[in-house]
From TrEMBL:
InterPro entries according to UniProt: Bud32, Kinase-like_dom_sf, Prot_kinase_dom, Tyr_kinase_AS
MF term (GO), any: protein serine/threonine kinase activity
Record-linked NCBIfam families: arch_bud32
Keyword Kinase belongs to the record: yes
Protein name as catalogued: EKC/KEOPS complex subunit BUD32
PROSITE patterns, A to Z: PROTEIN_KINASE_DOM, PROTEIN_KINASE_TYR
The enzyme's E.C. designation: 2.7.11.1
GO-annotated biological processes: tRNA processing; tRNA threonylcarbamoyladenosine metabolic process
Biological classification of the source: Eukaryota, Fungi, Dikarya, Ascomycota, Saccharomycotina
Places the protein is found: Chromosome, Telomere; Cytoplasm; Nucleus
Function: Component of the EKC/KEOPS complex that is required for the formation of a threonylcarbamoyl group on adenosine at position 37 (t(6)A37) in tRNAs that read codons beginning with adenine. The complex is probably involved in the transfer of the threonylcarbamoyl moiety of threonylcarbamoyl-AMP (TC-AMP) to the N6 group of A37. BUD32 has ATPase activity in the context of the EKC/KEOPS complex and likely plays a supporting role to the catalytic subunit KAE1. The EKC/KEOPS complex also promotes both telomere uncapping and telomere elongation.
């Protein structure tokens, strides 16, 4: 990351410790230990103070006209924050919104995930990689791996279905944009990074969402991806098509997914 972007972030977040976690074309994600407006010594009893928080920052784009850049930054940041708030009210697993500075492109969110035994954060991709390495080292772990992964991927499918039932399309569903939370009884997948999300009732858009994740699993976990995708779609069908009045909608998404797959295969053949 350029020093100019970091300096820009510090100018808006003066005195806030920032650790870069990731950087994409649209935004930089920081880890911080400071709450935006509360401290340990003074906060309402119904608000839990954590030791870590996530700050997503959209830096200005010098290739855009200054006025247009400010408008886009403000509108896109506000739209993502509104979506996070909506997801929380719908009880769809996603980061909880803590604070917003839309004009400066800043969203403050709760920190999610935990550290895997190999030191990596518990994204779905990292977790699957870790278990796959464990299984390769110990072939007796096959049954346990299948049971555990099937449960988690079924939950992932259910979470995506809940999103789609609200006509919300993620826009960038990859195994890196799904974090696992450690609950008492089971691992709970949480969807993150809604910067490219949108509202759409179209089965085509929902099918593309599923296809993007399917391709991500195939490319990063080629040995096991067929099972992974089957389990994911089982969870999706259970939730999306679970009610009688949704069965037709699910059938349409399923058909569109086959069409999207076919187009993807044709593109691969043509290079």
């Amino acid at each position: 990351m350029s020093s100019a972007i970091l300096a820009q972030a510090h100018s808006y977040l003066s005195g806030i410790p920032l650790e870069v976690i990731s950087q994409g074309a649209e935004a930089v994600v920081f880890l911080t230990t400071v709450h935006p407006y509360l401290s340990e010594s003074m906060h309402p009893s119904d608000i839990q103070i954590s030791s870590k928080y996530i700050i997503k920052y959209r830096p200005s784009k010098t290739y855009r006209h200054e006025i247009l850049d400010k408008q886009l930054t403000k509108s896109r940041t506000a739209a993502e924050a509104r979506l996070l708030s909506k997801l929380y009210s719908l009880k769809i697993p996603a980061p909880k919104l803590i604070a917003l500075d839309a004009p400066h492109g800043i969203i403050w969110m709760e920190f999610l995930g935990f550290q895997l035994p190999n030191g990596h954060i518990s994204s779905l991709k990292n977790w699957l990689w870790y278990l796959e390495r464990q299984q390769e080292a110990d072939t007796t772990a096959t049954i346990a791996l299948s049971d555990t992964v099937k449960q988690v991927l079924t939950l992932v499918g259910q979470a995506i279905a809940k999103l789609h039932l609200q006509d919300i399309v993620h826009g960038d569903l990859t195994s890196s944009n799904i974090l696992l939370e450690q609950n008492i009884e089971e691992l709970q997948p949480t969807l993150i990074d809604f910067g490219l999300s949108s509202y759409s009732p179209l089965a085509e858009d929902k099918a593309v969402d599923l296809y993007v994740l399917e391709r991500a699993l195939t490319s990063t976990h080629p040995v096991y991806s067929e099972k992974y995708n089957d389990w994911l779609l089982q969870g999706y069908e259970e939730t999306y098509g679970g009610k009688t009045n949704n069965k037709r909608k699910y059938a349409e998404v399923s058909k569109r997914l086959e069409d999207v797959r076919l187009r993807g295969r044709k593109r691969s053949m043509l290079g």
